[in-house]
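Pair request: fold both.
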Amino acid sequence: MNHDDAMPSRVRYTYQTTPEVRLQTAHGIWGGINSQGEIEMNFYHESDRLPEFTEQYIAPDGSLGHEVAPMQGEEHEVIRLIHSRVLVNYHTARAILEWLEDRISALEEDERHDIYDPNSGIEQ
């Protein structure tokens, strides 16, 4: 085997992002296994439904009063906006799982992981 035919000793991955890339918040995920045996993940964030409109009272002197939204009945509606859909095969799903487990372990070992304590009464 000639020296030019030798396999490289390492591979470099260079990361670039397109101008369209945006940071997304994920409050949850919905999905499952599709007919091709791939895992489909639909990431979403949640928010209260915005009213169709609001109105603001005008006082006799022309100043603005408080703002009111129309009554929307007894139901409280939460919007789940799916912002990212990701389709992965078994091997990629395993790699993501291992990557997440490594990051969670690092957080659990770090003393600062308790910056947010769900029992603190502070909502995040």
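--- second member of the pair ---
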Amino acid sequence: MPTVSSNRTSRIEARIAPEVLATVKRAAEIQGRSISDFLVAAAQDAAERTIQETQIIRLSLADQERVAKLLLNPLAPTPALERAFAAHRELIRESK
């Protein structure tokens, strides 16, 4: 679990149900932490997991195979894509 910095400069307040507080207190005691330290560490861990999950694309096996096949054997460019390539080449040529 990541270490919580002791250089705290912000404050967060939250209202929680008594049974949730009891659970948090118990978990903090088990880890030998204060409730505040436990909550900060748990929030940081949850935030990091959430961010990581948005950066990972999960595909089914069938989708993985489809992506691999398309990478190995790409489709021919459509007429619209060919026009876009030509326009891009023209823009690059003009900017030099």
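Observation on the second member. The chain has two domains: 13-56, 59-96.
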